[in-house]
Amino acid sequence: MAPAPEPESLKPDPLKVVIVGGGTAGWMAASALVKLLPAQDYAVTLIESDEIGTVGVGEATLPHIKVFNDTLGIDEAQFMRETQAAFKIGIEFVGWDRPGERYVHPFGTFGEPWAGVDFQHHWARAHAAGRASELHDYSFAIAACRNNAFEFPDKDPKSIRATYAYAYHFDAALYAQFLRRWAIPRGVTRIEGKVVDVARDAATGHVASLTLASGAEIEGDLFVDCSGFRSLLVGGTMDVGWQDWSHWLPCDRALAVPNIRTEPLLPYTRLTAQEAGWTWRIGLQHRTGNGYVFSSRFTDEERARDVLLAALDAPPLGEPRLLRFQAGRRAAAWAGNCVAVGLASGFLEPLESTSIFLIQAAVMDLIGLMPTRPSGIDPRLAAEYNRLFEVHYDRTRDFLVLHYTANRRHGQPLWDHVRNMELPESLAHKIALFRASAAAPDYRYGLFSRDSWLAVLVGQGILPAAWNPLAETVPLDDLAARLADLKYRIDVNAADMTAHGDFIRSYCPAPALEPAA
Amino acid sequence: MSARVQSLVLLGRDAPLWLAASVLQAALKPAGVAVTAIELPSLLHVSDVYATLPGIEALHTRLRLDEAGLLRATAGAFSLGQNIRDMLGGHGQFLNAYGAYGTPIEGNDFFPYWVKARALGLDVALEQFSPTAAAARQGRVMIPDEASEVYGRADYGYHLPAIAYAAGLKTVAARLGVAMRTANHIAIERGDGGDIAALVADGERVAGELFVDVTGSDAALIGKTLGIDQHSWRAHFPADRVFAARAQPFTPIPTYAELRAWPPGWAALYPTQAATHVIHAFSSALTEPEAALAQLGAATGLALGDAVLRPSDPGRRDQAWAHNCVAIGSAACALDPIHNLDLHAVQLGLITLLTYFPTGQDAAPSRDEYNRLMRSSFERLRDYQAVLYMLAPYPGAFWDGGRAAPPPPELAHIVATFRARGEVPPMEDDSIPTDNWRALLIGLGIAPESYPPRIDAAAADTVKTQFRAMLGFVKDTVQRQPTHAQALGLAHG
Q1: pLDDT at position A3, please?
Q2: What span, in angstroms and rounded, lies between the C-alpha atoms of B116 and B139?
Q3: Is residue A354 within 8 Å of residue A348, measured between CB atoms?
């Protein structure tokens, strides 16, 4: 760049943002910051160490990720090719209510409101009268899952084929690399190195600089802690406390192993309840990701390994890899001039693919509340950031706990424990409300939507005993006819869709990779 | 309570009673619920007026209450917002309008661009970017069309003389088939577990499974019968007395309300076709009523008559729904008179009740949810009202008291975030549009110390061009709008 004319030299130095850690969180933060913040005002540096592996959380995502990628201006087909991605329009839960039962949490709606009353009230009424089939029959996205089909949602919002959104299965390590390749030419300074020391300002307690193993000293105004479970700056240096949620979410280990891709390529994640936790199955273009999330209180690693390997639908590619964690979050994500993003701020098991969403929400909130010159770090902005952080984590937690507590897997110690444990009051209330009245949680901010709650409440076998009397303004015969018409439109349209595997082959075929050993 | 609601009994008076009875009847009659309204003697005075927010139109539509007929029958007026004015002139005035301020630039909200431009010296008030505010300033009614919808929301409420509006709603209730009776004396019959079994209205027993208390601050059922306490908000609201009075109508009739602040308190002027209704809120500890009324006449320059004095004691019942009784409106939450939000609170209560209407099974979860939501909704209204007292820059002991009061913690957070970043934190259950929070906070003198830095990505020239285009659009759009007289003339149709 040409040297700036005089007025430019009067400008304050750019605010130095230093991201510590180069996993999914680090590169998502770096990419969004460099895209959305003016380059003359913010200098974004990312420090990552080749020595430190990344956890590579969440190969499965929520539809919000598309908004994130679109914001960056990423070409979808290219991104999918380079991350071995496939489409995802739901999550199938197998055996969660009780062995042998299954349901899909779709990325779409159930039915439509009639007479100003939410769909589930009508459904509950018709179902009780024997005039409706299962709730999950009234979701277009579920019908598409059952057909292993995928197409882009219809642009006409009135079409039944517009009633869903989609996300991806991708290789999180490849996604981080993709974003790294994207972000560096756009201005992110990448420094290879390992942080060995943290220097703090004596007056403010803020982090002043990081010392790397090479001896290099990296100064910063704001530090984004993407160091994963270590939580180097927020948990470490700033000593922010941890809220342990393992009494609600007792799983604390995962074994992960890929296997060879099988056919057909499923457009959904499959999560199967096991004796001491659950296994995941995530189909990518080049392989299938598998893992077993379990509680060390209720099984041991050797047994867990056997369970995982028995659950595979093809031979494993290598030995299962063990991860340890604890459910919970930091008391605050922003302390002083350090902001934790991703695993450094908290951990929720990938039961609803929320890890990458929580990163995305944290990054976008940070960009909105980003310190500016001349005031710099402002505790008022941190307070709002932390309020939003709590909303995201606490609401997501309640939704995850629902999957466990509402089960009829009697006689399995983990499942007996979670069925009988004391629930967060906010969740106990939501369940009681739905059971008594068919009213489902419906809030404006944070995950999850009303339709998601419905999918899991009903999927876990919680049926409403009654419904809003306003639903009865529709005569039962009319209602039955509307439901039949809805189901017909769903089935006919879903039958007409392209197979997911064919769609991928024509839209974004990825290069064949040597499966990692 | 576990019985399926077959009979719903409302006890109350005036517009809240008839609005509630009509809305509940329209929704529930097809579901087989019988609605009975027991009317207590009116407490309305000829000077009373309701100011409605735009959302009331949705209820009127449900009741098939047409706008032209309503404005004709009540001699009401259109209202595009509220002009807030310092009578001593030290702080200018601003219009808090029921419409969008500016249109997005490069997909981002307009507002931070304005905050930035103002910090750089732009001398164009926020309201000039609002077609609704600009129409109000010119005495016109902003009628949304396709182009204005693209620009942003444009909406309006009404000023409705209270007696005529209540009478109109009573007619609607009768048309819808609400069973109606009047009573001077009510006895309450309690049943199992303390539930209300029946109301005895002048000796006649009216039984029901669910009772709705629309008795206003009387809280005859929720308070006096069921003993649910009011949690006082006194600390945040310096006014404890309210005069209502009226004067001759203005010619032409303005299309907005005006809030005038001066040392003893504030006065609000609500123009209608019939009269200019005036509300005056003050503190009895600082001003004698006679003096207040005399000052009101002087401050408004109006020949006031028909004055009536009432106390104001803001606060929220600990539960809006207790046993088998749901309190709606002031019976559940007595709001400060500022911004005239009483009918809006009635509407929130009704819509929430219909969403969580008891099913005939276990009503406790629905009741808990209703109470949770209404508490949160009322507290956000409280914050929106209290912020004026918290931040008002006006001189005098009345305003000093407001500024000195500790704000509710949520409001303190909202103001701190706005001061720091120019953003209103997104709060669950807040029924006030963000544009109105912004207009109010800016109007009360907050100059945000920063704005979201991502808007700096837009080139200065682009922003300037867009600003000019917006001002041009506002000017052109407003010129096409009907005057108030024309709009009301059309209403006379």
Answers
A1: 40
A2: 30
A3: yes
With bands split at pLDDT 50, 70 and 90, how would you rate the model's confidence at B492? very low
Q: Letter for the amino acid at A74?
A: I
Per DSSP, what are the bridge partners of residue A340? A225
How many CB atoms lie under 10 A from the CB of residue B404? Answer: 10
Residues B304 and B276: their CA atoms lie apart, in Å, by 9
Question: What are the pLDDT digits (tens) for B68-123?
Answer: 999 999 999 999 999 999 988 788 899 999 999 999 999 999 999 999 999 999 99
In terms of C-beta density within 10 A (0-12 exposed, 13-18 middle, 19 or more buried), how is residue B151 classed?
Answer: buried
Contact criterion met (CB < 8 Å) for B366 and A444: no
| Beta-carbon contacts of residue B185 (< 8 Å; ≥ 6 apart) | B201, B202
Residues whose CB is less than 8 angstroms from the CB of residue A422 and which lie 6 or more positions away in sequence, other chains included: none
Residue A10 tokens read as 């009067």
Backbone angles phi, psi at B114, to 5 degrees: -70, -40
Total number of residues shown for chain A: 517
Helical pair A450-459 and A425-437, crossing angle rounded to 10 deg = 80
CA A416 to CA A438: how far, in whole Å?
Answer: 26
Q: Mark whether A487 is an active-site residue.
A: no
Asked whether residue B307 carries a pLDDT value surpassing 70, the answer given is yes
**Residue type for position A434:** F
* B186-190: strand order across its sheet: B186-190, B196-201, B204-207
Nearest chain A residue to B414, by CA = A384
From chain B, the residues in CB contact with A122 under 8 A are: none
Q: What is the mean pLDDT of chain A?
A: 95
Q: Hey, what are A96's tokens?
A: 């969660």
ipTM of the complex, rounded to two decimals: 0.96
Please tell me whether the peptide bond between B357 and the residue prior to it is cis, using omega within 30 degrees of 0: no
Q: How many CB atoms lie within 10 A of CB B97?
A: 31
Angle at the Cα of B357 from the Cα atoms of B353 and B358, rounded to 5 degrees:
135
Angstrom distance (rounded) from CA A146 to CA A161 = 15
Which band of pLDDT confidence, cut at 50, 70 and 90, is reported for residue A57? low
pLDDT for position B16? 98
State the amino acid at position A251 in one-letter form.
Answer: C
- What are residue A357's phi and psi, to 5 degrees? -60, -45
pTM: predicted TM-score of the whole model, two decimal places: 0.96
Query: In terms of Cα–Cα distance, which of B217, B230, B232, B229 is closest to B405?
Result: B232
User: What band does A514 get if pLDDT is binned at 50, 70 and 90?
Assistant: low
A150-167 per-residue burial string, b: 16 or more CB within 10 A, e: under 16? bbebeeeeeebbbbbbbb
Dihedral Cα A81, A84, A88, A92, nearest 10 deg:
170
Whether the Cβ atoms of residue B339 and residue B382 lie closer than 8 Å to each other: no
Predicted pLDDT of residue A55: 65
| CB within 8 Å: A473 and B30 | yes
8 A C-beta contact, residue A469 and residue A124? no
Are B31 and A472 inside 8 Å of each other by CB? yes
CA distance B16 to B333: 13
CA atoms of A286 and A307, how far apart (whole Å): 24
Rounded to 5 degrees, φ, ψ at B472 are -65, -40
Cis peptide bond prior to A185, omega within 30° of 0: no
The structure tokens listed for A201 are 């300002």
Per-residue pLDDT at A346 = 98
- Chain B residue numbers touching A370 (CB-CB < 8 A): 452-454
CA atoms of B108 and B452, how far apart (whole Å): 10
Closest CA to B384 of B346, B352, B344, B349: B344
**What percent of chain B has a predicted confidence (pLDDT) above 70?**
99
pLDDT tens, residue by residue, A267-303: 999 999 999 999 999 999 999 999 999 999 999 999 9
CB contact under 8 A, A437 and B420: no
Q: Which of A88, A158, A194, A430 is catalytic?
A: A88
Which residues in chain A are contacts of B358 at CB distance < 8 A? Answer: 437
